[in-house]
Amino acid sequence: MKQLVVLSGKGGTGKTTVTASLAQSLKPVVLADCDVEAPNLHLLLSPRVERSFSLSVSRKARIDPDACDGCGACADSCRFGAITGAEIRVVDAFRCEGCGVCARVCPRDAVFFHEPEGAEVYIGSTSFGPMVGAELAVGEEASGKVVSRVRMEAQLLALDSGLPLVLVDGSPGTGCPVIASMSGADLTLIVTEPSLSGLHDLERILGVASHFGVPALVCINKSDIVPEIARRIRDRCRFLGIEVAAEIPFSEAVVESLRRGLPPLGNVPREVEDPLRTLAEVVAGRLDEAVARKRG
Ligand code: SF4
Ligand code: SF4
Fold first, then answer.
1. Given the DSSP bridges, would you call strands 60-63 and 111-114 parallel, antiparallel or unpaired?
2. Using an 8 Å Cβ cutoff, are 40 and 111 in contact?
3. What's the start-to-end Cα distance of the chain, in Å?
4. What are phi and psi of 115, to 5 degrees?
5. Where does residue 186 rank: exposed (0-12), middle (13-18), buried (19+ CB within 10 A)?
6. Which of 169, 171, 192, 205 could be a cystine partner for 19, CB 3.0 to 4.6 Å?
7. What DSSP assignment string belongs to 32-61?
8. What is the pLDDT of residue 170?
9. Which residues are 83's β-sheet partners?
10. Do residues 259 and 16 make contact, with C-beta atoms less than 8 angstroms apart?
11. Which pTM was predicted?
């Protein structure tokens, strides 16, 4: 089983469009939508949900009003300001980080913990292979735990079905969910765009990939919108020895296919489709090389 993760520094770079085009070209694959805070892949690939389950990702404090005498020691100790009320103390679940300090300082043993549902993980099927994704509960932030579970379910599906590739639409940014998206991957494809923030984000993700020893490729999306910065991205990649696998020009048709919920290949003009197909060929080749190197 090979694992490819598609990443970007922030939302809106076209990462999901690129992931969907890779699914179309490399099918059948197992898809893992690890962009759990702003999932979009399902909009393009329309998975038919076959099963789902809820996942707890955090614990929250609660106060037993019968045991509490309102002394306020817990509120004074909570550095997140999560305990409100005067005589009757209550915990604001949106602020509570589950640190446990309130339970330690409570003289009446009135604090207990519960694990609310944090995400609904689903497993479904698409025209390009099975797909796993998750929907976060209201107020829940993307966590490495949800991302890791989505990836694990995708890996199990790949093992069960014998499909050779897990294609991960990773979380944007460089935080914990990104690390959870990337860990154990054979190759990462970083989708960037020619803007100063894109250049900055690219450097940061390349740093994370290098730290975890995951080989990286770059795809410059909307490559023609600011040619000077596209050139700087190419120069920087050349300096770092990172291959720019494809450059995809901007097209309103891509925006329109997203809006209509259509996967890109077959729904965008030739000048966009050709580099997307080239990208899939390059990625497939580099993935084989990376796996061969790993296996020694
Ligand atoms: S568990 Fe921590 S964050 Fe939550 S209410 Fe208690 S002290 Fe505050
Ligand atoms: S420390 Fe315990 S007894 Fe005091 S207000 Fe908090 S929950 Fe109630």
1. antiparallel
2. no
3. 16
4. -120, 95
5. buried
6. 169
7. EE--TTS--HHHHH--EEEEEEEEE---EE
8. 86
9. 91
10. no
11. 0.84
Cα 167 from Cα 198, distance rounded (Å)? 23
Neighbouring residues of 286: CB distance < 8 A, sequence distance ≥ 6 = 187, 215, 217, 243, 245
The response to whether residue 68 sits with its C-beta less than 6 Å from ligand 2 reads yes
Rounded to the nearest whole angstrom, what is the distance from the C-alpha of residue 294 to the centroid of ligand 2? Answer: 55
Amino acid present at 277: R
Is 103 a pocket residue for ligand 2 (Cβ < 6 Å)? no
Tell which one of 71, 77, 113 to mutate to probe ligand 2, the residue whose CB is within 8 A of the most ligand atoms: 71
Residue range 171-194, pLDDT digits in tens: 876 677 777 778 789 999 999 999
* Domains of the chain by residue range: 2-56+124-295, 60-114
Contact 2, 193 (CB under 8 A): no
Q: Do 36 and 150 meet the contact criterion of CB atoms below 8 Å apart?
A: yes
pLDDT tens digit sequence for 212-258: 889 999 999 999 999 999 999 999 999 999 999 999 999 998 888 88
Is pLDDT above 90 for 2?
yes
Which helix (DSSP H) or strand (DSSP E) does residue 155 occupy? helix 144-161
**For residue 99, how far is its CA from the centre of ligand 1 (angstroms)?**
5
Does residue 50 line the site of ligand 2, with CB under 6 A? no
Mean pLDDT, the chain, integer: 91
Q: Which structure tokens are listed for 48?
A: 């038919």
For the segment(s) 60-114, the CATH number from 1.10.620.20, 3.40.50.300, 3.40.50.261, 3.30.70.20 is 3.30.70.20
Pocket test for ligand 1, best of 97, 104, 111 (most atoms within 8 A of CB): 97
Give the SS3 label for residue 19: helix
The fold adopted by the segment(s) 2-56+124-295 is Rossmann fold (3.40.50)
Say if strands 187-192 and 2-7 run parallel, antiparallel, or are unpaired.
Answer: parallel
pLDDT confidence of residue 176: 76
- Name the one residue in this structure whose structure tokens are 């690890």: 34
